[in-house]
Structures are given as structure tokens and as C-alpha cells.
Amino acid sequence: MNGFGIRAKVAALTGFCLVFALIATLVLLSWMQVNVNRDREVLASYMRRTELARVQQVNFRKQLQEWKNILLRGHRPEDFESNRRLFLEQERLVQENGKALTGMLTQPALRAREVEFLKAHEELGRRYRNALGVFEQSGRLDFQSADRLVRGMDRVPTDLIDGLVASTANDFEQYKTSHAAVLLDEQRYALGVALSVFLGLMLASHLLARRITRSIHHLTQTVARISAEKDYSLRAQRSSRDELGQLTDGFNEMLAQIQQRNAALQQSHDDLAERVAERDHAEEALLVSQALYHSLVVQLPVGIFRKDAAGRYVFVNPRFCELKHMPADQILGWTAPEICVRESQNATSMWRSELAVQGTMHHEQIMRSGQPVALEETYTGPDGQPQHWQVVKSAVFGPDQAIIGSQGVVLDITERMRTERALRESEEHFRFLNDLAKATRALADPEQIMAVTARMLGEHLGASRCAYADVEKDGEQFAILHDYTDGCMSTVGNYQLSLFGARPVAKLQSGQTLVIRNVETELLPGDGAEMFNAIGIQAIITCPLVKDGILRAMMAVHQTTPRDWTPGEVAIVQEVVERCWATIERRAAEENLRQSEALLHIAGRTARLGGWTVDLPEVRITWSDEMCAIHDVAPGTVPEFEQALSSYAPQSREPLRKAYEACVREGTPFDLEAELITAKGRHVWVRAIGEAERNAAGTITRVQGALQDITARRQAALELEQAHAQLLAASLKADMAEFATGILHDIGNVLNSANVASFCVADSLRKSKAGNLSKVVALLREHENDFGDFFTNNPKGRQVPVYLAQLAGQLAEEQAGALRELAQLQKNLEHIKEVVARQQGLAKTPGATEAVNVPELVEDALRMNLSGAAQHDIEVIRDFKAVPPVRVEKHKVLQILVNLVRNAKQSCEVSGRHEKKLGIHTTRDNDHIRIAVSDNGVGIPPENLARIFSHGFTTKKDGHGFGLHSCALAAAEMGGTLTTHSDGIGQGATFTLELPINAAQDQP
User: Fold this and answer.
1) Out of 623-627, 658-662, 719-723, 726-730, which region has the weakest mean confidence (pLDDT)?
2) Crossing angle, helix 77-104 and helix 108-138, to 10 degrees?
């Protein structure tokens, strides 16, 4: 029955039904067919609208892509025109699709949205064409500017068309959903009618109804799944070849077309999305690349330039301008030769014509071959120093890979060149120093060391001559002992330093290196140029050796022609000379060390002094050879600690052990004398000295020390004690002699004062006017008979009373002076008696003290010498500050003051000064009093100040060197001091006696 139509099947089955059933059935079937056809048309209409909206969306996106193609790949005219035609074609298709879709849309909202899209699309097209037209009229197509004018204008139509497509698809889905429900209701209604009409034929029509409804139900399920899953690959199952089968086939064919078109749309959408994403990514990458390129070009420490095909600069970065010392606006648009012509009058310009010509040749070569060019260029900078540049030039390619210009990178390698040169010089420098050290390592003779050094230094520098000289002690004469020469005369000989000019000599004497690059230009004729020229020197480096501020030696490198010595050459000469002299001093020190070690060995053997060490914590003992000799063991013996300790006498072991353990534990040093029993059984006395040695952490790591055989010293000490007892008696006699000497000196001082006083009395008597009294008496005797007339009328008689009155006054003055001198003489005699008594008391009991007034005691000392001072016109200056009475041995202090005043007076007498001054000052300083005696006499030489108080030292022809010595002793006995000060010969001197007040007052 599959070959029959549905009507034939129904007629065959319902032939036996009533006419009413037949008519009802026919009406129902007709009604169902009409609904199916209507639904098919509506579904097809929805599908056409959805497809047309998607096509319009695709065409619009293609139009936008063609606009981007114009901007991205429209640089060539033919590409531009082709892309613009495609753009206009897509625009036309969008408009046509839009108009067709407008007529099909029945919903007012969708129709209004489509109309709004078409208006926005027309406005967008108009703006695109206006943007392109503006730049076509200007004659220069700037695609980036055109893009900026219309950027963002496509958002409105894009949003409208996307919304329209989404709304159309949504309506389609809603219709399919509602259509399925309506269709299901209609089927149910038809089934109910069929059941009610053909109740009697239920069994007969069951198969037909089931067959019909199954196909339709399957079709609706397929539609529902397609609507829900959006999977257009699903197909409705065909169950027969009747109209339902045809409907199913039509539905499946429609699905196939929809699937094909949807796949095409999806592919177009994916392609468009991919192209848009690629474009966005490309734009982002372009922006990042441009930013990175700009940042890199601006911040790179290299100069970058680019030239067009004609060789004109079209781009330069800031570093290139800095290297060329020219702003960019003076470089861009010019060729290098044109800039050189413009800068020809600028002496400091970094644009050189020969390099510009060379650069033009390189540009033409690159334009022809495209091969890069690398080279180094050398310029003279504004500071006059050479500058080295490394330049790499290459081709600039256009979009079609054609060469459109050249570009280059300029790197300033001046510092690198200088560093490499300095490194080479440093390597040569250290290689030469190493060779010099090897050559002089085995030499010990200073002359050989200097000769080898001079030769190697001269050869290394390529100098004409290298010489060294010793300077005499006078600092003027110097002798060149040896020199190395290379084709020039030798300068060995004696010279005067001053002939080489004051300025060079002053520099050498101050320890500075003398560097002259051209004698003719750096030295004036009177500044040593003649002497340098005389010995053939036009350039020189001289290094002085100054010790203790005195120029001792020199070493110099000569050049017979002017030479610009480099700092490296000056430095190597200085270092070689310093090393040479250091080597000589080190060799001398090593020789002295060897001699000292030999002497130390001899001294240790002679003094019987050995060394020992104990390394901790191993307690490893080391003995020197002399240590072994003291113990009477073989050299190199290494004893154990207990073995070494057992070699001492029993009474010495425990003190040594305790001292050693304290040194190990606490680092306490020890110095002990002990009795040692040697391996041969000899008993010797030794002095053991030890101390601890710590590491950086403060831990004791070693105990070391010395051991000296003091047997002979102890024997000598015993003998010395015996000799000391024998000398005690002799010392008593010597003390008595010293006491006698002190008595005689003190009495001599007082006798001198007494002699002066007696001389003054005798001189006063000789010059006395009493001798004239006899003449007056004789005159009176002549006129004893006429006194009245004589005193009244005789002129001589009238003068006698006046004369006698005057004579009486003079005699009274003479008597008073004589009495004063006699009193002073009496005091001197009493002082002599007290001195004798004091010296006698030294052998018995200490001298008694008494409270004395210091100014009065000073006046007594002055009076003992006052008459002599007056005779020699010596001005005595008294400066007595308030001081308390002190308890002292009066005559000791008086003895000291008399000595000091007399010495000051004598110093003034022999000084030859017109104004002679003697000053005496008393002051108090806390718990001390000071009595200072000063003069402006001959003074004291500095070398005599240290021994002025020594016994036996004197500067007087008739002196015995005991006065000041005894004064110093007396001051010390009273707990005081006696000091002196003088600024030198002719500056006078000051002697200061200082006594402690408390100590003096507490004495009984």
C-alpha cells in the first residue's frame, strides 16, 4: 500500500462508511491539508527572513573588512582601486538585502530596526567615501588619518544588524515552538473528530491514523530538537512515500539547505572573526612594536640614522645628534656632503668631507647590492681628543622588498679603544716588571741592580738614555755612576744640581717626579735649558729619592729629541725606580738580617740564652740549639713535657709547673730562676721566662719563652756582695770628703760676701772726709790767739763752722755705712759657723727646722750680695707675692738662695750688657711656694741644661762644679725641687726653688 496515495488508502478503508462519514472525513482531511500548506509557507518565510538577515550581516561585515583592506593593503594604487570596488560592491549588496528584508518583515519593531540600520549604513558609507575623497583631493593618501576620521562610526550599524539577526532568529525559534504546539493540537482535534466520526471504523482506521500521526509526530520532534539544539544536521525519518513522506523529504531538503547555508554563514562568521581578531592583534602588535621601536631607538646608547634613496637623512635618533653635536632639524633633509659644505668653516665640526664622500659611496653600494657595510671611523672631538666610532650600515626594504634607502648604527667605541689600549699597556707594564724582577732577583750588588734596571727600562721605553745618580750630602753635587745609552753619548760624571734650573731642582727636592717633554718650550734659557742641551737632553723623566727631607739619589730617562711622555710611561718609570730602590733596600735589609741572625746566634751562644716553644693543645715542645746545649743534650732533641720538667732540681719543679699551668690557663707570663740538673749531671742556675700567644679569637695556642744560663751571674753576684762589703768603709771616707767639700764651698760663698763687706768698709775709710779734720785743727791752732777776729773777719774763718757742720754729716753717714757693713760681716761669720754646724750634724742627726718669713730670708740672701750688685750697676727687681711662713731648715734655704743670687750677679757682670737686671720672685701655687731668681745675663746653652746640676759640672774657670749640685741635693732633702730654664745663650736664665708648704710645715 505504500505505492498508493493517502486519499486512495482512506477511500479503500472507508468505502463502506456512511456518506456523512465520507464527507466529514473528506472535509477534515482538506482542512488539515490547508493547515499543513499554510504552516509550510510560514516556516519557509521565517527561514528565508532569517537567512536573508544573516546574509545581510555577512555582507556588512565583508564591507567592513574591505574597508580595513583598503587601509592595510591599499598603499599601491592598483590595490587601492581593487579594494574600493569590492567595498562598494559589498555596500550595494547590503542595501539590496536590506530592502528585500524590509518587505518581508511583518513585525513593526523589526521593520523599524531594519530601516534604522539602512539609514546608519548609508551614513557610514557616505562618511567612508567622504574620508577617502578628502585625502584623494589633497593628493596624499594618509590611511591612518582616514581611519581616525571614521573610527568608531561602524559600531551603530554593527549593533543594529547584529540585533536584527538575533531578533529574527529568535522569532523563528518562537514560531517553530508555537507551530509545533498548534500542530499537535490540530492533530489531536483531528484524531478526536476521526474517532467520533469513525467510531465504528476504529479498528479499520487505526493503522491509517497511526501511520499518519507517527510521521507527523516524528517530524515535529525533529523540529523541536533542531530548535533546541540548533543542530541542522538532524533529519526527519521518512516512513512512506506518500505526501507525508514528501513533506518529510521536503523538510529534510530544507534542513540540508539550512545546514549548508548555516555552515557557510558560520564559516564566513569564523573567517570574519578570525580576520578581525588578526587585525586587532596586528594593530595591537603594531602599536606595541611602534612603542618598543620608539623607546629602543630613543634610549639606545648608539646613534641610529636612516637615509632615503637620494641619500638624504630622513631619521636620526637623539644619540646620533649627540655624537654629531648637531640638532636633528639641521640634519634631516640634507645629505652628508651638503652638511660638510655647510660646516666647512666650523673647526670643531664632527662632519668631515672625506668621510661624507665615503658614506655616499657606501650608500650607493648598498642601494645596488643590498649588502651591509661595517667600518670604523676616527674623528677629532671638540676637546681635541680622538674619537673612534664603529658604524654598521644596511639596506632599508619596502613592502615589495625593494631597496628604498639605507640605515646605520653608530657606536662610540672610544672608551673601549682606550680601555683596550690601557689593558695592553697594563699587560706590557706588568710583563716588563715581572721580567725586571726576574733579572734582578739573583743580584745583591746595588750597582748591578741599578745597571740592569737602567738598561731594561731604557730598552722598554725606547729611550735614548737611562741613568742613575747619587747626590752628595751638600745637596748640590751629584754623580751619574752609570747610564744606558742607545746611540748617544754617555753622561757619566759629576754635576752641579743648581745648573739644571731652580724650578726643576725645587721639584726634585720636594720629592716630585720631574717630567719635561720639550726642553726648548718648557724651560727658559736661565732655567736650566743650557745644561740640558749641553748633555743632549730634550725630554726627560726624573724620579728623586728623598729621605728625611733630603735628596739622596735620582734616576732619569732621557730622550735626545722632544717626546710627549704618556701618563703610562711616567707611571712605569716611577714604579720601576721605586721598586729598584726598594729592591736595593730589601737586599741591604736581608743582608743585615743575615748578619743579625749570625750575631744573634753568637750572642745566644755567648750569653747562654736558648729559646723554647710549646704548641697547644698537642703540648709539642721545640728547643733551640742553645737550649739543648744548656741541657747537655744533642741538638734537635724533642723532649716530653714531664721529661723536661724532671730535669730541674726537686725544689724548682713545683714553682715551674704552677707558673706554666697559669700561663696556659690564663695567659699569665712568668719569670723565674731555677736550678737545673743537666744530662751530664751538672748543676746550673737558669732564668726561665715564658709568655702566652693567642690567636685572633683570643684562644691561647702557644707558650713560648727563653732559658738563660745564669750560673756565672749568680757567682758574680756573690762576689759582688763581698766586694760591696769591702767598699762600705771606703764609701764612708768618700762621704767625709764630700762633706768637707760642701763645707768649704758654703764657707767660700760666705767668705766672698764677708770679703766684699770688709772691702767696702776699708774703701769707705780710705775715702773718708775725716782726714780733712786735721787741716781744720791746724788752721785753728794757727789762730788760737785770735779766734774772735778769725771767725769774724777772716774769710777762711767764716767758712770753718759751715765746713764743720757738713763734715759732721758726712762722718755720720760714713759711720752708719761702716756699721751696716760690719753687721753684714757679723752675719756672714754667723752663717759660716752655722754651715759648719750643719755639716757636722749630717753625720749625727737631721737638721732642725724653724718657721721663717720667706721675703726676709730672700732679703738676707740679697744683702749678702747687694754691695757687689750696686758696684756693677745691677738693677735688683723684687716681686714678692703673699706667701705664708714656712718651716724649713733655714740655712739650707739661705745656702741655696745665696748661690743662686751670686750666680745671677756673676752672669750679669760678664754679659757686657748696658742694662743689667736681677729679679727675684716669690709666689704660691696651691700647696707649694716658689722662689725664682732670674737674670738677663749670658744664659745657658741648651746642651748644658740637662747636666747643670751634675756634680763636677761648671762653666767657670775657677769653679769646682759643687755649688748647684749641693743646692739641688739640699732642695731634694727638704722635699722640694730646683729647676732651671733658659732660652739660650745671651737670653739670661731663671732658677726656681720649689718647696712643699705642708711638708715643710710638718717637719719638727
Assistant:
1) 726-730
2) 160
Asked whether 403 and 367 are in contact (CB, 8 A), the reply is yes
Helix (H) or strand (E) holding 798: helix 795-842
| 200 Ramachandran zone, left/alpha/beta (phi>0; psi -120 to 50) | alpha
Q: Sort residue 888 into left (φ over 0), alpha (ψ -120 to 50) or beta.
A: beta
Rounded-to-integer distance, Cα 621 and Cα 614, Å: 5
Place of cell 785753728: 780
Helix (H) or strand (E) holding 454: helix 446-461
Beta strands in 766-902 (DSSP E): 850-852, 874-880, 886-888
Report the C-alpha gap between 167 and 591 in whole angstroms: 113
- Residue 716 domain flag: no
Cβ neighbours of residue 863 closer than 8 Å, sequence gap 6 or more: 824, 827
CB 456 within 8 A of CB 439: yes
Q: Write out the residue range of the structural domain in which residue 815 sits.
A: 724-840
Separation of alpha carbons 761 and 822, rounded Å: 8
Instruction: Say what the alpha-carbon torsion angle 161, 165, 170, 171 is, to the nearest 10 degrees.
Output: 90
Residue 255 lies in a domain: no
| Predicted confidence (pLDDT) per residue in 249-275, tens digit | 787 888 788 878 888 888 888 888 888
- What's the domain count of the chain? 6
* Cα distance between residue 451 and residue 482, in whole Å: 7
570 and 638 assigned to the same domain: no
- In the block, cell 725586571 appears at 436
- 333 and 479 belong to one structural domain: no
CA distance 679 to 816: 93
User: What is the per-residue pLDDT across 805-823, written as a single tens digit (0 to 9) for each?
Assistant: 776 677 677 667 766 766 7
DSSP conformation letters of 282-305? HHHHHHHHHHHHHHHHHH-SSEEE
Q: Are residues 690 and 736 in the same domain?
A: no
pTM exceeds cut of 0.85: no
Of 253 and 138, which is predicted with more confidence? Answer: 253
Report d(CA 240, CA 211) in Å as an integer. Answer: 9
CA 863 to chain centre: 75
* 937 three-state secondary structure: coil
Cα separation of 258 and 260, whole Å?
A: 5
CATH of residue 919 = 3.30.565.10
Decide: 305 and 356 in contact? Cβ < 8 Å: no
Give the other-Cβ count within 10 Å of 271's Cβ: 14
Length of the chain: 1004
